[in-house]
């Protein structure tokens, strides 16, 4: 069930019987020269809506503000300052909770959001909330094995073979395969002389074109295989969250209620 497609009356009736909501996080940023700026939020929202068709759940509208300061040098990127982003994320959670949602599932579609969403989840401990937050983190051995089996290339991470394949499966009209550069984009390793380093420019030092690998190998069929597996995995997680009673008990204990 998509939040934005409900009437107020339908929404209230739905939440009364199933107070669980999936909130997807993406960003707006460059994805090589062949994928749309909204690739991350388009794909992750598609993932959530498809999973909701298997395991009924409310899905919040596409949310496209996330941590993407490392790409603000590229045209079209929307990069909010971190304090504003944190405030916006917390305010959104509070509003979802105010509407009667008792369980909120965060699903991330952008690697640069990982630290931000982990901090946002930790920040919920500051005060007792009317809801419980579940941050979905896929990464099973089966998923890793499937991606290795399906994909022909070894370098992935952004606008690559797998992301382009999933985009071809989800919205082929937004993918321009003719715009993919001929040469394979491998890490430039411009900061390799500083081992054990992380800096805000680590990604840019490796991928100054904001593109990874060889997207020419991408196909819609590969994308459907990868996407459908991820949909099934998310649907299983949603089901487990709907049935869970432990997190609420732990929250009450933690806040001494």
Structure notes:
- Helix content is 43%, strand content 7%.
- The protein has 257 residues and is an alpha/beta fold.
- The chain has a single domain (3-254), classed as Creatininase (Rossmann fold, 3-Layer(aba) Sandwich).
- The protein has a four-stranded parallel sheet with strand order 2-1-3-4, sandwiched between helices.
- Helix 2 crosses helix 8 (220-243) and helix 5 runs antiparallel to helix 8 (220-243).
- The longest helix has 24 residues, at 220-243.
- It is globular and about 55 Å long.
Ends apart, CA distance between termini: 33 Å
H and E order: HEHEHEHEHHHHH
Shape: globular
Which fold name corresponds to the CATH topology? Answer: Rossmann fold
Mean pLDDT value: 97
Query: How do the strands of the widest beta sheet line up side by side?
Result: 2-1-3-4
Rg measurement, Å: 19 Å
Query: What's the CATH architecture?
Result: 3-Layer(aba) Sandwich
Count of helix runs? 9
What is the CATH class designation? Answer: Alpha Beta
Domains, number: 1
**Low-confidence blocks of residues:** none
Helix content: 40-55%
Query: What structural class do the secondary elements suggest?
Result: alpha/beta
CATH superfamily: Creatininase
Could you tell me the number of beta strands?
A: 4
Biggest sheet layout: 4 strands, parallel
Show the helix and strand layout.
Layout: H1 8-17, E1 20-25, H2 39-54, E2 58-59, H3 82-98, E3 103-108, H4 114-123, E4 132-136, H5 141-150, H6 161-170, H7 202-206, H8 220-243, H9 246-254
Parallel strand pairs: 1-2, 1-3, 3-4
Helix pairs in contact: 2-8, 5-8, 6-8
């Amino acid at each position: 069930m998509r939040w934005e497609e409900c009437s107020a009356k339908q929404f209230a009736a739905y939440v009364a019987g199933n107070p669980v909501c999936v909130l997807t996080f993406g960003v707006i940023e460059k994805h090589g020269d062949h994928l749309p700026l909204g690739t991350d939020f388009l794909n992750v929202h598609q993932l959530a809506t498809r999973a909701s068709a298997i395991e009924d759940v409310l899905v919040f509208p596409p949310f496209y503000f996330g941590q993407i300061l490392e790409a603000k040098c590229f045209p079209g990127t929307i990069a909010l300052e971190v304090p504003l982003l944190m405030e916006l994320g917390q305010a959104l959670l509070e509003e979802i909770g105010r509407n009667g949602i008792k369980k909120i599932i965060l699903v991330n579609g952008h690697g640069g959001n990982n630290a931000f969403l982990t901090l946002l989840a930790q920040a919920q401990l500051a005060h007792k909330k009317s809801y419980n937050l579940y941050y979905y983190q896929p990464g099973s051995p089966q998923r890793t094995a499937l991606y290795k089996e399906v994909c022909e290339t070894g370098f992935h991470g952004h606008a690559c073979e797998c992301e382009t394949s999933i985009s071809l499966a989800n919205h082929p009209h937004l993918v321009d395969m003719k715009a993919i550069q001929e040469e394979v984009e491998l890490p430039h390793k411009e900061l390799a002389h500083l081992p054990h380093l992380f800096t805000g420019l680590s990604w840019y030092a490796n991928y100054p074109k904001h593109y990874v690998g060889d997207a020419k190998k991408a196909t819609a069929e590969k994308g459907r295989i990868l996407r459908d597996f991820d949909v099934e995995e998310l649907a299983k997680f949603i089901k487990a969250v709907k049935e869970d009673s432990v997190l609420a008990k732990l929250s009450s204990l933690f806040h001494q209620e």
